[in-house]
Amino acid sequence: MYIIGERINGMFKDVAKAIREKNKRIIQELALKQIEKGADALDVNLGTAVEDPLSAMEWLVKTIGEVTEITLAIDTTKLAVMEKGLQCCKSKPIINSTSADEEKLNTLIPLAKKYNAGLIGLTMSRKGIPSDANSRLELAIHILNRWQEEGLPVEDLYIDAVILPVNVAQAQCPEVLETIHQVKMLSQPPPKTILGLSNVSQGTKYRSLINRTYLVMALAFGLEAAILDPFDEELRQAMRTAEVLLNKTVYCDSYLK
Amino acid sequence: MEKAREKWVGKVNELVIGAEPQEGGTRKKIIKIGGENTLPFLYFEGKIPNPPVVAMEVWDTEPVAWPEVLKEEFKGCLKDPVAWAKKAVEEWNIDLLCLRLFSTHPDVQNTSPEEAGKIVEKVLHAVGVPLIIIGGYSAQKDGDVLFRVSEVVKGENCLLGIAVQENYKTITASCLSGGHSLIAETPIDINLAKQLNILISDMGFPAERIVIHHSTGGLGYGLEYTYSVMERTRLAGLSGDKMLSQPMINFVGQEVWRAKEAKTSEEEMPVWGRQRERAILWEATTAVAFLNAGANILVMNHPQAIKLVKETIKELMVDLVSK
Architecture of domain B15-316 in CATH? Predict the structure, then answer.
C-alpha cells in the first residue's frame, strides 16, 4: 500500500498558521513524523486562506525539501501554483489532481511530461461526480487514453474514483469499490488506483472507524494507494492486517511494527 | 511473442564482508553479495550486480565424523586451522572462509571463549580473505564465544553467527559493538524468519546487515522445503518487504557429508558407484539447487565440489541477454 500523508494541508489550523507565520519547524516536523509513521509520499496543499499562493507554495515545498527528498503530491487547482510546486520538488512529484475535462487534461498532462511527474486523475468532470461505477469508468478510460497518447508510463497514472462522504452519498460507497476493481482491467499494465480516504467520513461521528473500515474494503478490491492520515494508529493497524490477510505481506507475530 | 516481465519494486540488500586497510580492517580483498532486483539469473528482468559466493569451511578441531574421502583432501591440516585456512587460500584459491568453532560446544571440548578468540586471531592473521565465523551450534555457549570473537575481529567486518531465537540478543549486541554482520537462523519457516529479523532490527541493528539462514535441507533430506521457503522469501523481498530482503546463506557441506549417499563406501553399496565422485557430485548438486533458490552464500567442504560450483556460477553469471 502506497501511503500519501495528508497532514500538510492548509485546512488544518496548525498548518495554516505555520504557512502564515513562515514557521519552518512545524512543517518540517509534520513531514518527518508522517514519514516515520510510514508515509511513502506527502500531500502538499496550501488550503484556501493564502494571500500569495505562488510564493507560499514555493516556501512550503522548499521547506519540506530541506529535510527530506520524499515524493510530494502537489495539491492545488491553480495551474501556476502547481507548476511552481513541481519546479521546487527535489524528486519525482505527483500532480494532485486532474478531472476528466479536456481543458484540465490539456494543461496538466503536458505539465506531467515536462516535470516527469505522476498524475492523479479524478473520475469526475464539469458535470459533476457520476453516481455509478460504469460512468466513473468511462471517465477513467478517457483520462487513461489521453495519458497513453502522450506516451507516458501507465504506472505513473493514479485513478481516483472519488469517494464522497457516507452521510451525503451512501449509495456511492459500493460503486467506488466496484470502480477500483474494474480500473485494474482497463489496460495491461493497469493504472494505479488511489483514494482520498478521509473524505468518506467527512462530517460523521465515527470518523476513524469509518475510514479504516472503508480502507480495508477498498484494499480487498485492489486499491494500491491512498491519501490518508498516517497518525491514525488504528487505521495503520487495520491496513497492515488487511495486507496480511490478502497475502500481500508475509505474516509474522510482529507484523504490526 | 511478448516476454512477460515482472517489474519488482524491491531488491536484495547489498552486503560487504571483510574490511580493507582503508576501512580499518586488514583484509587483502573483500566480498560483496546481494543487490539483485530479480529472481536468480533472470537477466532479462533486472540486474544481478554480484554473483553468489562459495565459502570453504575451516574447523577449529578435527571433524571426526567426516568420511575418509573428505578427510583425505585435508591431510596434515585437519588438526591445525591455520594450516587448513592457508591451504584453502593458497592451494584452492578460496576467497571466503567460514571458520567453525566446533570445539567450543560443551559436549565437544568446551573450549573457552578466550581460547576460541586466540584461534580466530591466528587464522585472521594467516590469511587475507574475509571471514565468516560461526560457533559450535550451542545457543547458550555461542553467545559467550561470539562476544569474545567479535572483539578480537573488531573492524574486520566479519559475518558472525549463528543467531537463533534463544540467543539473538547477545549475538546482536556483540555484532553491533564489533561492527559485524550476522546470520539469523530459523527452522524452515518464513514467518519465523521475518519475526527474528524484526526482533533483531528492533535492537537497533541495521536490517541491511542480516543474512538469512532458513536452515539447510540436504538433497534427499528436505532440500525442497528449504528451496520453497527461500523462493518465497525472494518473492516477498522483491515485492518490497524490507524484513525479507536480506541475502541468504546455506550450509551445504554440513548437510551433505552426513548423508548416507556421501558416507557409504562402494564396497558397501556397489550399485551406487564410486564414493568419491558420488559424494562430490552430491555436494555440488545440492549447492546448485540452492543457487537457483536464490542463495547468496554457499558454505561447502570438498575442494573439488567447490570448484565445480564456482565454474557453474561463472556459467550462470554469463549475461546472455545483454550480449
Answer: Alpha-Beta Barrel (3.20)
